Amino acid sequence: MLRLATIGYEGATVPGFLATLRAADVDLLVDVRAVAGSRRPGFAKTRLAAHLAEGGIDYLHLRALGTPADGRAAARAGDRAAMRRIFAAHLATDAAQDALAHLATLVTAGRRVCLLCLEAEPAHCHRALVAAALAERLPVAVVHLHPADVAPDPDR
After folding, report:
1. N or C terminus: fewer CB in 10 A for the chain?
2. 3-state percent helix, strand, coil for the chain, nearest multiple of 5
3. What digits encode the pLDDT tens for the residues 111-140?
4. Cα pseudo-dihedral 35, 91, 135, 27, rounded to 10
5. CB-based contact 72:32 (threshold 8 Å)
6. Is the pTM of this model over 0.90?
7. Which residues of 68-83 are buried (b: 16+ CB within 10 A; e: fewer)?
């Protein structure tokens, strides 16, 4: 069976984040943020890609698999149901479906892919929805990673 990992960098440090990716044998980080910027040092697109390259991990930004602005606003407001609804509609668009097909090609080609977004808890993040959509296309086992220096919050 094919494998797909996901990870969120919320609360992580770059060293802990990279250590987790290396331990999981990831060779391609696929950024599924609509906006690949970050206020967290080291996690904006250009700097993150450089850190990954230093560790032998490739970087790809699939913007079309990011949550639209209204979905991000719903998530910030704590309305996860609205975020899921908005993202599901977005995922049905041609651009998102093309990006999902590209992701499927990478996974079936044997790349050890990990999806990236901010949210620490995958159940609260659209990356779990992307992973589920890919699992509908491919026999893929999804593994949710947590950066080495961030413990999952059992109350979330």
Report:
1. N
2. 45, 15, 35
3. 999 999 999 999 999 999 999 999 999 999
4. -20
5. no
6. yes
7. beebbebbeeeeeeeb
- Per DSSP, helices labelled H in 24-151 are 45-54, 69-76, 80-91, 94-108, 126-137
What is the C-alpha to C-alpha distance for residues 89 and 108, in angstroms, rounded to an integer? Answer: 26
Q: How far is it, in rounded angstroms, from Cα 102 to Cα 61?
A: 12
Nearest to 144 by CA among 118, 104, 115: 115
Q: Is residue 118 part of a domain?
A: yes
Assigned domain for 101 exists: yes
For residue 48, which of 79, 17, 3 has the smallest C-alpha distance?
A: 17
DSSP class of residue 63?
A: G
Which pLDDT score, from 0 to 100, does residue 18 have? 96
Mean pLDDT of the chain: 94
* 155 belongs to a structural domain: no
Q: Considering its fold, how many domains does the chain have in total?
A: 1
- Quote the pLDDT of residue 151: 53
> 4: closest CA among 51, 75, 49, 65?
65
Q: How many CB atoms lie within 10 A of CB 150?
A: 18
Tell me the residue range of the domain where 13 lies: 2-145
Amino acid identity for residue 3 in this structure: R
